[in-house]
Design goal:
about 230 residues, Rossmann fold, 2 domains, four-stranded mixed sheet, 12 strands, about 30% helix, elongated
Length: about 230
Amino acid sequence: MSARADILGRIGATLNSESDQAARRSAASARLSSPPVGLAPARSLVDRDAQITLFREMAEEAAATTDRITSLDDLPAAIAKYLGSHNLPSRIKTDEDPLLADLNWQAQPTLDVSSGKPTDADEVGLAVAFAGAAETGTAILTSGPDHPTSLNFLPENHIVVLPVSRMHGPYEAAWARMAAARDELGMPRTVNWITGPSRTGDIEQTLQLGVHGPRRLHIILVDDGEEEGA
C-alpha cells in the first residue's frame, strides 16, 4: 500500500504542478480558438441544388414528406393542400417566427390559424426551422420566446417550414451557422434535430409511428432568394 500511495502521490503532484496546469490551459485555449474540423460525409459536400435534392431524399427515406414552393406567399395554399390530401383538420397552431408574420392566411379561408404554445386539442403544428442538414434530411429547430419547443412534439402532425437559404450540407455547417448567430440571438436553451416523424421499435420490434411525438412530419422548402447555407 505504501508503494501504491507513493506512486499515486507522485502522479498527483505532477498533474497538479503549475507547469502542467499552464500546459493544460494553453492546450484548451488553442482548441477553443481553433477547433478541429470534423469529418463530413462526401455526399453532403455538394452545391445548393444537390443539397436540396439530397435533403428531400434523406427526409423521405426517414418517412417524412416534403414539398417545395417558390415563394413564402404560396405557403398557405401548400399547407391547405397537404391537410386536405390527408383529411386532416384545418385548424393549425403556429410559432411566432417573423417569417410567418405577414402571411395572408385569409387567402385560404378554410384554415383556422393561431399562434403560441399548443394544447392537447391542437392536432397540427407549424414551425419554422433554424436550419437543415442535407446529410440526413434533418430539420433543426431552436427554442425561444417565439418558438415553443412543445410545438415540435405535442401535435400529431408537424409541418416545418425550411427556407432553402438555411440549407447546409453536413452537420458541422449547421452548427457553424448557430455559432455565428449566437452573439446576435444568444444560445437557445434547446436545439431539436428532427429526422422523420417520431418512431419506436421497442414493442416486439415492430415499427410504430407517433409514440413519442408527431405521427407525421411534412417539410416545406421555400425558395426565399437569399444566400446563406454551405
